[in-house]
């Protein structure tokens, strides 16, 4: 598990059996009073999918201070000539305790809210169909409030979509990622799950 002043996180990932490289990538980058979180899935699998994912992650890292729409547009330009990719990203601002998120394609994102007096609730990211680097849809950003101990899970399509039923919010992020991967990885594609939890401390 990794930790910063603002969040703690864990990731579990594996390439499709028989492939030397995974086409799934991720980025967790603290930026000022916030953090940029992203998961990218290069189309298909193997070296060409990995090249697309790596190009997207590199573009995100270089321009991490920008907001979600310009970031995805930069990735779109960076991925021209590659297979393209789908991606979801979330920009957390721990000064205002908000999250801006946006997705293109089928990288799923779910925010699990951990209220102190109520049962946990969850909100799913609304993504738009398309391929970054090939056909970019009209991008739509959603802004949500977040609280300490809320947990964000991003997963590529190598993870079964029913993974939301298997999240143990009492566990640490790395343990959640490992458990989701063990239970929900399809085994027929590259797979990656990223779990990010907001900390009590404020910057």
Jot down its keywords.
globular; Phosphatase 2c, domain 1; 3 helices; six-stranded antiparallel β-sheet; 19% helix; 11 strands; five-stranded antiparallel β-sheet; alpha+beta; 203 residues
How would you sum up this structure, described in words?
The chain contains 3 helices and 11 strands, in the order ββββααββββββαβ. By secondary structure, it is α+β, with helices and mostly antiparallel strands. The relative contact order is 0.22. It has one domain: Phosphatase 2c, domain 1 (4-Layer Sandwich). A hairpin with a 4-residue loop joins strand 5 and strand 6 (98-104). The strands form 2 sheets. The chain has a 6-stranded antiparallel sheet, covered by helices on one side. A 5-stranded antiparallel sheet has the order 3-4-5-6-9. Helix content is 19%, strand content 34%. It is globular, with a radius of gyration of 16 Å.
Question: What's the mean pLDDT score?
Answer: 92
Instruction: Find the CATH superfamily.
Output: PPM-type phosphatase domain
Query: Largest sheet, if any?
Result: 6 strands, antiparallel
Strand content: 25-35%
The overall strand count is 11
How many whole angstroms does the radius of gyration measure? 16 Å
Q: What is the CATH topology classification name?
A: Phosphatase 2c, domain 1
Q: Unreliable runs, pLDDT <50, ≥5 residues?
A: none
Q: What is the level 1 CATH name?
A: Alpha Beta
Give the neighbour order of strands across the main sheet: 1-2-11-10-7-8
The helicity comes to 10-25%
How many domains in all? 1
Q: How does the helix and strand content classify structurally?
A: alpha+beta
Head-to-tail CA distance between termini: 20 Å
CATH architecture: 4-Layer Sandwich
């Amino acid at each position: 598990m990794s930790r910063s002043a603002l969040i703690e996180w864990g990731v579990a990932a594996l390439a499709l059996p028989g492939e030397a490289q995974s086409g799934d990538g991720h980025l967790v980058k603290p930026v000022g009073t916030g953090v940029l979180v992203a998961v990218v899935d290069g189309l298909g699998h193997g070296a060409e999918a990995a090249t697309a994912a790596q190009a997207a992650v590199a573009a995100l890292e270089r321009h991490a201070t920008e907001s979600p729409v310009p970031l995805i547009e930069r990735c779109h330009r960076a991925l021209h000539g590659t297979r393209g990719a789908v991606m979801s990203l979330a920009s957390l601002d721990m000064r205002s305790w908000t999250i801006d998120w946006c997705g293109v394609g089928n990288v799923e994102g779910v925010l699990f809210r951990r209220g102190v007096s109520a049962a946990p609730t969850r909100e799913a990211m609304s993504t738009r169909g398309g391929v970054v680097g090939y056909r970019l849809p009209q991008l739509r950003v959603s802004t949500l409030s977040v609280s300490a101990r809320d947990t964000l899970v991003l997963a590529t399509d190598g993870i079964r979509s029913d993974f939301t039923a298997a999240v143990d919010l009492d566990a640490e992020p790395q343990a959640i990622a490992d458990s989701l991967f063990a239970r929900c990885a399809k085994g027929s594609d590259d797979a990656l799950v990223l779990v990010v939890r907001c900390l009590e401390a404020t910057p």
